[in-house]
Amino acid sequence: MNGFIIILAAAVFLVGAYLIYGRYLVRKWGIDPDAKTPAYTEQDGVDYVPADTNIVFGHQFASIAGAAPITGPIQAAVFGWLPALLWILLGGVFFGAVQDFAAMYASVKNKGKSIGYIIEKYIGKLGKRLFLIFVWLFSILVIAAFADVVATTFNGFGTEGEKITANAAVASTSVLFIVFAVGLGFFLKHTHFPAWANTVVAIVLLVLSIALGMNLPLYFSREFWLIFVFLYILVACVTPVWALLQPRDFLNSYLLIAMMLMAFVGIIVYHPAMNLVPFTSFKLVNETTGAVSYLFPTLFVTIACGAVSGFHSLVSSGTASKQIKNEKAMLPVSYGAMLLESFLAVIALVSVGFAASGSNLPEGTPAQVFATSISVFLTKVGLSQDFSYTLITLAVSAFALTSLDSVARIGRLSLQEFFMDDNKEMGVVEKVCSNKWFATVITLALSLLLAKAGYESIWPLFGSANQMLSALALVSCAVFLKKTKRQGIMLWGPMFIMLAVTFTAIVLKIKDLLVSLSGQFVSGDAVQLVFAVLLLGLGIMVAVEGLKKLLCKQS
Questions:
Q1: Segment 315-336, tens digit of pLDDT
Q2: Is residue 543's pLDDT more than 60?
Q3: According to the CATH classification, is domain 3-551 in 2.40.50?
Q4: What is the Cα–Cα distance from 95 to 114, expressed in whole angstroms?
Q5: Which segments of 18-52 does DSSP mark as H helices, in order?
Q6: How far is CA 273 from each of CA 8, 219, 280, 353, 363, rounded to the nearest angstrom?
Q7: Phi and psi (nearest 5°) for 427?
Q8: Which of 473, 415, 399, 472 lies closest to 447 in space, CA to CA?
């Protein structure tokens, strides 16, 4: 099979899905273009800030993408490219995009509140509190995993102490992104130029940061960058969204879309062969560790972003819904951004299919495999492989760093919301724990401790927890649609399938951790076991509370 055919077929399928199924959802749920959105009715200048559709789209896409739509498909390719491709396309259209749209829709219709509030209003206060703790624990996992990814990507030195210029250039460019984003934020807030003018300014700043960054590399160790990343997200988590989150995502969205266009053009011109077999086996055994992986549920938790991801529901209802100017923007911002992410996942699958040999995947991290393959494709259009490799690596790190912005804020908001109660006066403990600085610091401190375990150790648990979160979000949105007398049957299939996938996956993960700890005690495994058991318990309780409301007769 040729990668050219796969990428074209995927593009046609995803565009068709947006035009047909996306618009079908709009008709079934109803959009009121004249309604005042929470960005106006709840405007506070910090979290609730009206923004143009292209800016919110940039925030949504950059936040939900992360490194996962590249990492997941490349790891899952161990089962062959065909099952991975089918799950990306069908999952993206009928699971992920539907979940993202439903979560944003429910939030906008409820004052821009998070999924936790939706659960409290339509399921009950107990369900909400359980869910918020689940989200907080999940946020800690995401921050730890992605912070390690970014710090490793920025590391300017190899194992022998040699300088790695590509990493150092990526680091310096990313730092310049942050600086320029702050300036862009003030520019967008205090000027009223048309959207095209703002776009020109953003692109100029983007090009300038890349040009300066690639010529002024910053050589620091992974440990330095890990501390830098946590200090950065500490600030990003509490500043008004217009000052950093919106403009940084706006800048990054152009870089990320440029990367996808480059990759798409490279595949079209190069016509890469899929050297990976279409299918390997339902059961795989790791020759080194002896660990066994099954197609079900492994494939469905390994490819999360790109198919369906619970994290997306937090972004849709936690940050993006507070910036929507008009309800009409919800379809492109939520459903459209998810399908674009699915397309990125297909590009990642083509890249690993090209670099593989038979049933053997290439060596290196997923980011390295992706950057190497795409840079080879781009030699056909006259670009230097070294230049392309650095630019692609920069874009991948930008994905991860942008997700950190959003998930840290979501973790902070979840902890705050857990201790807030509009119906009673808060005590000293509630006031302290609901303070945004305290909630941010405690969240990041625990994330930093867990980050010591490393990205590879955390990722399997993150995948299972992420997909369980998706199942719970689908349950919550289905209850909301039922209670508000809107059609929600399109959520039922994805909901029950994801419940089966995630509970199976996390039980298997707990079993593996218990076996590992029985042989040798490893602190990182012990911490993960505690997280896994807590997440499983919380997930079961939230699911039971939600399903009781969903399956009972309408009152």
A1: 899 888 999 999 999 999 999 9
A2: yes
A3: no
A4: 20
A5: 23-29, 38-41
A6: 14, 37, 17, 8, 18
A7: -85, -170
A8: 415
